[in-house]
Write a structure and sequence with these properties.
By secondary structure, this protein is an alpha+beta fold. The protein is built from 3 helices and 5 strands. It has a domain of about 70 residues: SUI1-like domain (Translation Initiation Factor Eif1, 2-Layer Sandwich), CATH 3.30.780. It is about 25% helix and about 20% strand.
């Protein structure tokens, strides 16, 4: 049996020689992700009425787009370890989290956080 051995030729070897002849280029431009500006204010309040005696913390006046509101709701729920939802443009978190929510909102860049009792 004869073994047929063929020498493999690198198809990129010719391109390697041409690379040195190219003029130096500028580094690739990386598009910076635009960070959305945080809302100017938020109102945090406790609510029991109409919820069968259960307490919820409501965050209002954020004036965010619906997609951003969903993201904020999800991230706040994860940070607090609690459930919640969006109702009529407000974030509703299960339980009394007024003080912690105030700190979280300030950390996210909200300039004025009003906590009502």
């Amino acid at each position: 049996m004869l073994a047929c051995v063929t020498a493999k030729k690198d198809p990129f070897a010719a391109l390697e020689a041409l690379r040195d002849k190219l003029p130096p280029g500028s580094p690739p431009v990386v598009a910076q992700k635009k960070t959305p500006e945080a809302p100017a204010r938020a109102v945090v309040r406790l609510e029991k009425k109409g919820r069968r005696g259960k307490e919820v913390t409501v965050v209002e006046k954020l004036e965010l787009k619906p997609a951003e509101l969903e993201t904020w709701c999800r991230e706040l729920k994860q940070a607090l370890g609690s459930g919640g939802a969006i109702e009529e443009g407000a974030i509703v978190i299960q339980g009394d989290h007024r003080t912690r929510l105030g700190q979280l909102l300030e950390a996210r860049g909200v300039r004025k956080v009003t906590i009502s009792g």
